[in-house]
Amino acid sequence: MEPVIFEERQTQIHRKGTQPFDLACNKDSLAGAVSQRACVFCGSRVVLYPIADALHLVHGPIGCAAYTWDIRGALSSGPELHRLSFSTDLQERDVIFGGEKKLYRALMELIERHSPKAAFVYSTCIVGLIGDDLEGVCKKVSKKKGIPVLPVQSEGFKGNKRAGYHAACQAMFRLVGAGDTTGISKKSLNILGDFNLAGEIWIIREYFKRMGIEVVANITGDGRVDDLRRAHGAALNVVQCSGATMDLALMMEEVYGIPHLRVSYFGVEGMAESLYSVARFFDDPEMMARTRELVREELAELYPRLQEFRRALTGKKAAIYVGGAFKAFSLVKAFRLLGMEVVLVGSQTGTPADYQELHDITDEGTIIVDDSNPLELSSFLKEKDVDIFVGGVKERPIAYKLGVGFCDHNHERKEALEGFVGMLNFAQEVYNTVMSPVWQFVPRKVRKAA
Amino acid sequence: MKDHNAPYTSTTNACKLCKPLGACLAFRGIEGAIPFLHGSQGCATYMRRYIISHFREPMDIASSSLGEKQAVYGGGPNLKQGLKNVQSKYGARLIGVATTCLTETIGDDVPLLVREFRREMAGGNGHEDLPALVTVSTPSFSGTHMEGFQAAIKSVVEQMAAGGPATEAVNLLPGFVSPADIRYLKEVLADFDLTGIILPDISETLDGPAQDDYEKIPAGGTPLKDIRAMGRARATIELGRTLFPQETAGRFLENRFGVPWRPLGVPIGLRETDRFFQVLEELAGCATPPRHDLERGRLLDAMVDGHKYVFGKKAVVYGEEDLVVGLTAFLSEIGVRPVLCASGGHSGNFGEAIAAVTQDLLAEPPLVREGMDFYEIAEEVEALAPDLLIGHSKGYHLARKWGAPLIRVGFPIHDRFGGQRILHLGYRGAQSILDRIINAILEKKQQDSPVGYGYL
Questions:
Q1: Which terminal residue of chain A, N or C, has fewer Cβ atoms less than 10 Å from its own Cβ?
Q2: Complex ipTM, two decimals?
């Protein structure tokens, strides 16, 4: 049997220390390689999904809507329209004669039924091919119903997830600027790139509140249409998960002059530095003092408990493969805080700058990989003899089949991993999987012991 | 109640999945096979995630990963490159190529492209290593995952089965049942001393043991040599009443190779299982082995012991049509009143099948609805006020809202552990479903009671 790495993919894999770093990325996935990537539609759906008072209608055959029905842990404090799965369920005759009429009727029907604040209409592969005028239908319905109806140009084949992020940002940007911004504090911001998985954005909002900052719009976790419409009244955009919502931050910067800061709420360092950078931005000594106090309080509670985990986990080996490289930075640091060694790190959609940063923060010998697949990942896990793999649902069975622990760090997760408390949850989850007695019975360990 | 002459235009919370997903599941049950989707990358990834979440097993689905350029100029080159890559890296012995809405709409002629690929590979070296290539048309805009599943099975048989000297084997086409169900069927055939060819066989490929190494393709699945020999078998048992009127793999084997076709309902509950065992008795020329007779006896005993707990309870059953038919048959046998049988499927044969299996048992036939989504099911539930729901995980929201217990069966089970090990078939499966139904009713009773009986 041939080695598991495709000739065409050699340049997308790097072992730190072996040669100058020059990782190829941003390439189309290799046909037949079982990429872990998704599509444009997936990117748009991920970003817009948590907007809880909007109607999310998927215009296409049933699959795209069915596979994204209530699968994410994005919580809402109020309406939960986002947890329903709406589709035009296009049939053969629609493909032949066009789906515009069906789309129109479906939109009218659903808006009447649910009275949403806005509607997002997602384009799927075949809509791009049969040439439905999404924009036209949306305009017509918007006029009739008096709410924004926004086309999302997310035809699956038109690129990868990143293109979908862009399409989502473009759709959201059409909402921004329409609302009344009176009464918004000068010390205010929008939270971009947090999806309120397991209630994470509530943790972050609480920190900002303690610092004395008003949050105008959650984009998009626990998101609301009206908040988005007045998001241009905020003084600052803080952007996490740079791939997903950075485009929106840039558009808002260009049109409304709102500056942005890149932040991370994962891990102690990232979380603390994010809060400090926001305090520095507002240049308010009192706010800075409050922020210091906040971080001190949180750490005083967190550190002693982290030490317990650290004692058990020191020296264990971790592998990371996530969607966006951004998350990987924080994970590398978080594992270091737990005394663990990261031996593999990769992402589906990292950029050259992302990978350079990963290269800079990882140890010698670490494997860095772009757009990997199950065969490669499983061979790396084995080669590095790792104790835990961090990824999403598709990575989980690779780890488990080989008898390796696993931590879900994807949108399906039900554990809050952000903030100081999130670091503790993360440590607990890592501990729970790494320290399980089951590994001593799995074939991999039994063979090694023999 | 909703007017079925004017159905809604939109679909909310679908009670079906798309066609290529079914094809991927079917291909996964063949030895050395890799499912391959000709389309954009997202389809494969979404389906993998969906399937993995149920089976908790690796599910590699290759994709031709079409981009914008290929959507315009045709996906042929990507398809061929993808096939080559799957062959070289996975060492696949069969690649099951299913189309998607994208490639159906741009009009790629996949059988032609695959023929070209075969020719091109034969020109080079190593053509003797070329895997079997099966193609199936699965446009997501027509039919559900079940049509995709059946279409894939039919394609496999049409493209691979051959005639020749007759064998003693019996073909068994079980449809989409659980790995535990397949293991049960194998056991039954073995107990009858029958050599079976079960297609597909996901008993190991989607419920495998812990491994020392990552298996590129999980062990197990229907052996290719067995599939080739299906045209020489003594008979084909094909399960699924809603399939009967259609062109199926079993019917094809009869028409093409003269293999007698024995269509049967999915053996769920007493009478459908009796019919199944009766056919096995005929084919094996012997009586049902004692252990299965005993299982039947114990099931009957349990039906008697439990009859008062369930009598008159109203049930809503939803999911894939043939699964619903089987479950409805069993519910009717134990005295539960099925009030709604719903499916996202649209075979046109659902009502007739339900009528056939509930014959002589129900004073009032249930509502039988094809093409339903969960919005419509919820509307019916309001009117019907059921005591329990039976179906897959996606009905959980409804069960929670309505406050009735949900008995989880079929696919997908995304909110419980062990979905791949749920046994539905045979006397043993019925026994297990009966236990679960009665316990769910008892638990609900206990929960709702202010007394807190510890003795029910």
A1: C
A2: 0.95
